[in-house]
Amino acid sequence: LRDEDNKYCVDCDAKGPRWASWNLGIFLCIRCAGLHRNLGVHISRVKSVNLDSWTPEQVQMGNSRARAVYEANLPDSFRRPQTDSTLEGFIRENYEAKKHIAK
């Protein structure tokens, strides 16, 4: 969480994420953590930054690296969605359908 890019939710840019998807390597706000849980553990495994225990392998994460992979092909004019329905659609596109993933 010391890295500047990890001080914001990777999906909606909310400040101060307290959740993480450890298999995707991203930090999340509580709203986006709930949406990630809806994807299922075969796609995203969510843990609390403070309340859960972490293995050394699970702390090798960061929003910058994840965005370079999962958002590599987002259009330059892209703006992060803010409503729940558009946010859920964006999260599903990114991590379930892998629509914007680096080739």
UniProtKB/TrEMBL annotation:
- Mention any Pfam family matching this sequence: ArfGap
InterPro entries associated with the record: ARF_GTPase-activating (IPR051718), ARFGAP/RecO (IPR037278), ArfGAP_dom (IPR001164), ArfGAP_dom_sf (IPR038508), ArfGAP_SMAP1-like (IPR044732)
Keyword Zinc appears in the UniProt entry: yes
Ranges for domain Arf-GAP: 1-103
List the GO molecular function terms: GTPase activator activity; zinc ion binding
Q: Which UniProt keywords apply?
A: GTPase activation, Metal-binding, Zinc, Zinc-finger
Quote the protein name from its UniProt record: Arf-GAP domain-containing protein
**Biological source species:** Daphnia pulex (Water flea)
